[in-house]
Amino acid sequence: MSAQHETGTASTTHRVLILGAGYAGMAAAIQLAARVKGREDVRVTLVNAQERFTERLRLHMTATGQQLAELSIPELLEGTGAQFVRGWVTAVDADARTVRIDDEGVLPYDTLVYGLGSAADTTAVPGVDDHAYTLNGPQDAEVLADRLARLGGGTVVVAGSGLTGVESAAEIAERHPELNVVLLGRDEPGAAMNPRARAYLQSALDGLGVRVRSGVEVVKALPGSVELAGGESIAADVVLWTSGTRVSPLAAAAQLAVDECGRIVTDTALRSVSHPDVYAIGDAAAIRQGYGVMHGTCQGGMPTGVHAAVSIARTLKGKRPKPFRFGYYHTPVSLGRHDAVVQFTRPDDSPRRIHLTGRMAARYKETVTASPWPTFGRMKKMPASGAFWPHGGRFTRVAEGAE
Predict the structure, then answer these.
(1) Of the residues 51, 60, 115, 324, which has the maximum number of CB atoms within 10 A of its CB?
(2) pTM value?
(3) At what angle do helices 23-35 and 298-316 cross, to 10 degrees?
(4) Residues in the chain with pLDDT < 50?
(5) Burial class (CB within 10 angstroms; exposed 0-12, middle 13-18, buried 19+) of 137
(6) Distance of CA 298 to CAs 255, 301, 370, Å?
(7) What is the C-alpha to C-alpha distance for residues 22 and 45, in angstroms, rounded to an integer?
């Protein structure tokens, strides 16, 4: 189906348009389609720029030349009744309730689910956009893999010591022992973990030959080097940028209420506080819980997609949507193919004492990474099976009247 075919449609059908087929968007599309299956008065359409599903949790593997299964979004939607439109979202008109695709077609909606997620922020630091690689998608990761394979030697700087940076640095060091890998960041790797888990992570990076520099900030990327605050220069044949993310400016341009990061501010049901016919999910949403605003992860993203779908289904039946509540429960970090650290957390994401390491942790991480596919499959047959996640108890309660 093309966007052009949709523009002239006049009917009483309630049109639900879902933008973005990441983990959250796919969960929303499959969950809602399963719940309204057989209803001719509801149409679910999922829009994404590519037909290939991006496994963001595995992009560091793609970046080191490992071949992964190519997952087709239309195939994942088979049997649900949801329709797929391939195209770039170039504008949202929240007042007219339309979305422009590829600057050509226009899709009208009655309810919008906005799930256009985040990407590496390459604009905040001079030179990054021109001289650094990112892991924004499979194509970016494949370009980096090709470059690393042709190096033969030299230094790879991974800028950003968060989870993506740690996993990438470990993977590159393991797959390319001929390269010097330097991990740079303001915080030490695993800073949010308990001391024993953090020590294991740092020991594993040492064992892989990764040189860690924490307490530093990259202020400029140049051909062949990066410059740190204070003037120090570090030679780099390749720079991988994992420091900071940004969201699409489309929400702000559409006059939707957004926070200082450009994320759509939601009410407790995940609806935009300025446009209640718009739901925001995943990285695109500023969702407040008792512990603060959620940060973007797959473990939280999929529940937001499912909750939005359940809320829409309830609204279509004349019922009120329920508040969304979510508590974190783990932070799994791979350290190459056969090692990992899994930090179990309290609902507010603070570390518990318990953690896993080594091969057991690596198996746990792989199970987590592969879990969306059986989850999607179960939701097609039993939608309610996707609506279970930790609600977080007292940690997630929002004070009466607060949003």
Answers:
(1) 115
(2) 0.93
(3) 30
(4) 1-10, 400-403
(5) middle
(6) 27, 5, 11
(7) 14
